[in-house]
């Protein structure tokens, strides 16, 4: 696996692969890799000949009081994992390479509607930072396929909409969330949890399962969300949002069948997110 922070080097190597007829698969990450990231590499490898991963802790998607400075940086371990997973090329740009004129002067890509509400409501500007950096990574690598985790469900929806709206010839693959046995979704931010918080954290997924099961059995959406809020609060979370939406994040209507329940909640200082898809029976879809 070749590692580079240099845009020319990256482009030259990928051009050569493309000329050789290789399909390029992209796996964008912020590093501190776990099995969830390696599942993205695996999904890209199943579809492409050359796999390029990126590690860049993108300052543009962090708010002023968020964890940019403390975000875990584990480059040597990440390289070893990517190499073992069969990644061919790793791009590790610095903020200076990505934003040479500074964040304030950066051209932005904003994806309306789908980036509003949910995490977009509590993290203003976050998805502008994500869509901007992912657009840049797409321009730099020109992949045939790009893989993102379904845990960051709204991020995946934002990227899909950007690709559609900007007519990008890229196949965006959503890869199922990898979980611990307890149900806790793997996340780099799990590393912030104390042992006690880690033991509690699986309650987030358990609460979503409770809501899914109740709704699939014909329960009322608002009542089940209320019970879910109570369960999370009792467990020690401070819920940020708990919502049921359509798969493309629209409002649920009487005709909605396929839906998704999404949650974000703080446990101590750590903000966790998760989601679960479900099928509403005809008589329950009245919210
Ligand atoms: O999901 C992430 O790790 C980041 O948001 C991404 C997609 C790499 C953009 O910085």
Care to describe what's here?
The protein has helices at 7-19, 35-45, 75-85, 95-98, 118-122, 126-141, 153-165, 195-201, 203-216, 221-235, and strands spanning 2-4, 24-29, 50-55, 89-91, 145-149, 171-175, 238-245, 258-267, 270-279. It is of the alpha/beta class and 287 residues long. Strands 1-4-3-2-5-6 form a 6-stranded parallel β-sheet, sandwiched between helices. The protein has a 3-stranded antiparallel β-sheet with strand order 7-8-9. The chain is globular. 38% of the residues lie in helices and 20% in strands. The protein has 10 helices and 9 strands. The termini are far apart. It binds pantoate (PAF). Pantoate binds at residues 28-30, 58, 61, 130, 133-134, 152, 155.
In short:
This protein is α/β, with parallel strands linked by helices.
């Amino acid at each position: 696996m070749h590692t580079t922070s240099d845009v020319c080097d990256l482009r030259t190597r990928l051009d050569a692969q493309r000329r050789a007829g290789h399909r390029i698969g992209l796996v964008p990450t912020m590093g501190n890799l776990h099995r969830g990231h390696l599942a993205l590499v695996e999904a890209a490898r199943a579809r492409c000949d050359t796999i390029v991963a990126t590690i860049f802790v993108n300052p543009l998607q962090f708010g002023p009081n968020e964890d940019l400075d403390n975000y875990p940086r584990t480059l040597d371990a990440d390289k070893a994992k990517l190499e073992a997973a069969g990644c061919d090329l790793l791009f590790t740009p610095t903020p200076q390479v990505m934003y040479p004129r500074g964040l304030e002067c950066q051209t932005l890509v904003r994806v309306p509607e789908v980036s509003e509400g949910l995490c977009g409501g509590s993290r203003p500007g976050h998805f502008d930072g994500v869509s901007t950096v992912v657009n840049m990574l797409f321009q730099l690598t020109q992949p045939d396929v790009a893989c993102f985790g379904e845990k960051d469900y709204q991020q995946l929806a934002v990227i899909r909409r950007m690709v559609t709206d900007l007519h990008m010839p890229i196949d965006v693959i959503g890869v199922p969330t990898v979980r611990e046995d307890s149900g806790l979704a793997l996340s780099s931010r799990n590393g912030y949890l104390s042992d006690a918080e880690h033991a509690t954290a699986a309650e987030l997924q358990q609460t979503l399962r409770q809501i899914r099961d109740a709704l699939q059995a014909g329960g009322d959406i608002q009542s089940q969300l209320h019970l879910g809020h109570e369960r999370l609060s009792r467990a020690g979370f401070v819920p940020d949002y708990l919502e049921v939406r359509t798969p493309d994040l629209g409002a649920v209507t009487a005709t909605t069948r396929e839906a998704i329940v999404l949650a974000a909640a703080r446990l101590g200082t750590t903000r966790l997110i998760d989601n679960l898809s479900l099928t509403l029976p005809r008589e329950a879809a009245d919210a």
